[in-house]
Amino acid sequence: MRRWKKSLIGIAVVALVMLGFMIWYKVHFSMSPAREFEVKTPAAAAKVLIATQASAFKDSVVAGVVEHLGLRPAYVKVIDVSALSSVHEADWNAILVIHTWEMRQPQPDAKQFMERIGDHHKVIVLSTSGAGTLKLDGVDTISSASVMTDVPRRVAEIDSRIDAILNAQPDR
Known about the structure:
The chain is 40% helix and 20% strand.
C-alpha cells in the first residue's frame, strides 16, 4: 500500500511540473495581438490584407512588406490573425497570413481560414516555428524561424509573391 501511495504522489508531482512548464511556456512565448492599421485609401485598385501576430520578427516583416507596397497604388490593411474569421477572401486581391506554431500546433484562426477559403492562389502564408520547418498541410507556405537576420530575405520573397499575384490580375 505504501508503494502505491508513493507512486501516486510521484505521478502527481510530474503532472504538476508539466502543467507548470506549459503555463510558463504559454506566458513567455505566446504571441501578442498585432496592431491594426491601414495604408492608403480603400478605393485603390489593388487591395492587400495582412493578417499577423505581434513579435519583433513579424512586425519587421510587416513593415518591410508595407514599405514595398507603398510604392504601388495599393490599399493595405493590417489586422490581427485572430480576426480572420470575419475576412471575405473575395474583398482582397492578395492576402498575407503570418502566424506562429505553438506547441506543434498552428495558430487556430490561420488554420481555419485556410481550410475555409476557396482561392488559395492569392494567399501567401508565412509560418514561424522554433526550427522554422512547420507548415500547414496542402498550403504553399514560407516556413521560417523568427531570426531577425532573415527578415530582408523573407520580405523579398513575400514582396515577389505579392507582385506576382497583383500583376497576374487584370487592370493592375
